[in-house]
Amino acid sequence: MPQEDRITVHWLNFSRAQRILWLLDELNLSYDLKVYERTKEYRAPKELEQVHPLGKSPVVEITKPDGEVIQLAESGWIVQYLIDNYDTEGKLKPATIQDSNKVNYFLHYSEGTFQPLLVGLLVNQMATKVPPFPANWIAGAVVKGINAKYYGPELEKNLKYLNGIAAAQHSNGSKYLVGNKLSGADIILSFPIVSIFTTGRGLRPSVVDEFPELHKYYQNLSQEKSLKNANEKIAQYERNPLKL
Amino acid sequence: MPQEDRITVHWLNFSRAQRILWLLDELNLSYDLKVYERTKEYRAPKELEQVHPLGKSPVVEITKPDGEVIQLAESGWIVQYLIDNYDTEGKLKPATIQDSNKVNYFLHYSEGTFQPLLVGLLVNQMATKVPPFPANWIAGAVVKGINAKYYGPELEKNLKYLNGIAAAQHSNGSKYLVGNKLSGADIILSFPIVSIFTTGRGLRPSVVDEFPELHKYYQNLSQEKSLKNANEKIAQYERNPLKL
């Protein structure tokens, strides 16, 4: 059946928005991509505020054949909505009600618990590099203290938790987070998990050795065809990784 | 119909968990309350890790008549699950599909965008009061810088956004966030919005004057009967507000 709804993705480079492109590819949906580039301060540009008052990305706009426009924001909700409404073949649909409950939990967990820790670390990391801080080494010491007291232990706890889930899944012969198939849980958690293994936000280089099952999960994830397609699509806008 | 499922709420004092008690009262559900008290460092006690590996609150456990136990974590998901499964009279059910989409968005927005800003501010506030920071006044200056650069402007943007939504709703004659009735959106956002007006996390005393529609919304919210019931229930565990 030809796709009746028109889909537009407002997409910010180096952002959580890339996983929405993965999902759209997975669901065989075509879409228009509107690209926004980060400012020198690594913030979203003002133009995004014309799309949504909070100026965040991603925002997905769906135009129905009758002209109705549905605007979606918040990645967890976007993933939920797109799967509920467009996964007509049940490709990503969990096999049981128990699995469905788990996926819904992860859609909230990813953005409500795990990702905020990474944002907190990123904000602190930027704090040591951007004026008007009194002196970089002092800012560094304070930030290190905050990380050691809160963000570090919390991140550690979450990585252990996810590593344990990956271990249990691997021993059941599954390379996915829930059941035996790809789901919204893998897609929503891909961004923070990829961040852990590709940026300094794992907090230490030994993260690969300390969380081997999560690393194996990440390696399997990287082989997903639609994720690769999405990455190829966005490579042109992210050729030079931002160094922070 | 008598309630067949047994519900247990693992509840931490001074936490987001209080709104789940509101929702349970709203849905006329009875439940067992297990109380956990914060440590001197304002953290959750270790016992909570025996309930859920992340040691967070709230966690809701539902025991079905056949013995199956469903464990729910993440407040947005808990609210969604309880309403989907126990709002048999449609008391909180949105009137239209558009309103339902809005409520689902807010369930993600509250915990994925708004609440993390308040947590970030709380973590920074604690940083200036707890060793091992180099010196409190220096930590204070750095933290003030981080707040001024990131958390302050982001919080401002979100308060304007919510104030605008409240204004539009008030001018439509509604005292709720979505449509003309109480919904999961009001319940999930009650905790961060109450925090804004009752703790220093609004960042300045003028928050009442600057966001009058949001304040009016908050005042109306405070009059909700089931919220009052929940507050009375927990008053015994929160008699002495923690000063931070």
UniProtKB/TrEMBL annotation, chains A, B:
Ranges annotated as spanning the membrane: none
Signal peptide coordinates: none
Keywords: Transferase
Assigned GO CC terms: cytoplasm
A Gene Ontology molecular function term of the record: glutathione transferase activity
Domain of life (superkingdom): Eukaryota
Keyword field contains Transferase: yes
Location of the GST N-terminal domain: 4-90
Reaction catalysis annotation: RX + glutathione = an S-substituted glutathione + a halide anion + H(+)
Domain GST C-terminal residues, every copy: 96-244
EC number: 2.5.1.18
Pfam families: GST_C_3 (PF14497), GST_N (PF02798)
Membership in a protein family: Belongs to the GST superfamily.
Protein name: glutathione transferase
